[in-house]
Design brief:
about 110 residues, single chain, 8-stranded antiparallel β-sheet, SH3 type barrels, 8 strands, mainly beta, about 10% helix, globular, about 55% strand
């Protein structure tokens, strides 16, 4: 299912993925699109918030709780335009950021 509204994305994050142990894959590109950095870990999604940023886009802040008690924060910019924000299929949520992609798998 394609997700095209910010409110719908937050609802899916909080209702389907919050408080569950997830496999997280986060890929970020530099501003020129050549270098890519990928991070993977397993943790529980503790919270998700969406705010406006100074560049007329949206900031999605996800806070994860690792098994060792450490908190991991991912802040990614997503488009303010409500179109093709994410895709949710069979326990896999892919969020398409401005210069990043986040995949959550339960």
């Amino acid at each position: 299912m394609d997700i095209q509204q910010h409110e719908q994305l937050l609802k899916i994050l909080t209702e389907e993925y919050a408080n569950k142990v997830l496999t997280v894959s986060y890929t970020q590109w530099d501003s020129e699109g050549e270098d890519e950095e990928e991070t993977q870990f397993r943790a529980t999604l503790a919270s998700a918030t969406l705010t406006n940023n100074e560049f007329t886009e949206k900031d999605l802040l996800l806070v994860f709780a690792a098994e060792d008690g450490e908190h991991i924060e991912i802040l990614m910019e997503i488009p303010s335009e409500e179109a093709d924000l994410a895709a949710n299929e069979a326990g896999r949520l892919s969020i398409f950021g401005t210069e990043a992609e986040l995949v959550l798998e339960s």
